[in-house]
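User: I've been trying to design a sequence by hand for this structure and keep getting stuck. Would you show me what you'd pick, starting by listing the structure so we're on the same page?

Assistant: Good idea, let's start from the same input. This is the structure you sent:
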C-alpha cells in the first residue's frame, strides 16, 4: 500500500498498487508547475487510487487539454495528475510518504531540461543557510 499527503496534511491518498517505474520529467510544464529541475512521478492504476482525506481542499489546473494536476488548495502541494480518459493516475513522488526502493528510473524530455541543471555536479557541502 502506498500512502501520500500534502505538506500541511489536509489532503492524503492511498494506492493499493506497486510502483514499477519512476519517471523524472524535464518538460517545461513540469518544471514550472513544481518550480524545480524536473518532476518525479509514478503511474498507478486509477481503480487502485483513492483520496483518504481532504477532497474538499483539492484544487486543479488543466495544464494541457484533458490533463489535470491536482493540488492542495491550502498549502499548494501537487499530489497527482490525471488524464480523465486514461486508466492510470500519476503520483507526484515528492508527496509520497511510503518508502520505495530499487525501482527502475528514466528521465524524459531531457531536450527541455533547465539550462542550469547538470546531473553530473555534486556538492559535498552545502553553502551556509541552505541546509
Amino acid at each position: 500500500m502506498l500512502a501520500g499527503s500534502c505538506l500541511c496534511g489536509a489532503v492524503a491518498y492511498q494506492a493499493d498498487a506497486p510502483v514499477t517505474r519512476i519517471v523524472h520529467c524535464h518538460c517545461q510544464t513540469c518544471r514550472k508547475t513544481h518550480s524545480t529541475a524536473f518532476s518525479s512521478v509514478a503511474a498507478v492504476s486509477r481503480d487502485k487510487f483513492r483520496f483518504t482525506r481532504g477532497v474538499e481542499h483539492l484544487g486543479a489546473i488543466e495544464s494541457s487539454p484533458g490533463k489535470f494536476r491536482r493540488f492542495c488548495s491550502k498549502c499548494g502541494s501537487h499530489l497527482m495528475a490525471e488524464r480523465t480518459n486514461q486508466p492510470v493516475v500519476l503520483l507526484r513522488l515528492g508527496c509520497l510518504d511510503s518508502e520505495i526502493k530499487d525501482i527502475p528510473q528514466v528521465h524524459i524530455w531531457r531536450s527541455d531540461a533547465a539550462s542550469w541543471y547538470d546531473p553530473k555536479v555534486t556538492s559535498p557541502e552545502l553553502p551556509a543557510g541552505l541546509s
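That's my pick for every position. To get oriented when you compare it with your attempt: The chain is about 5% helix and 40% strand. Helices lie at 28-34.
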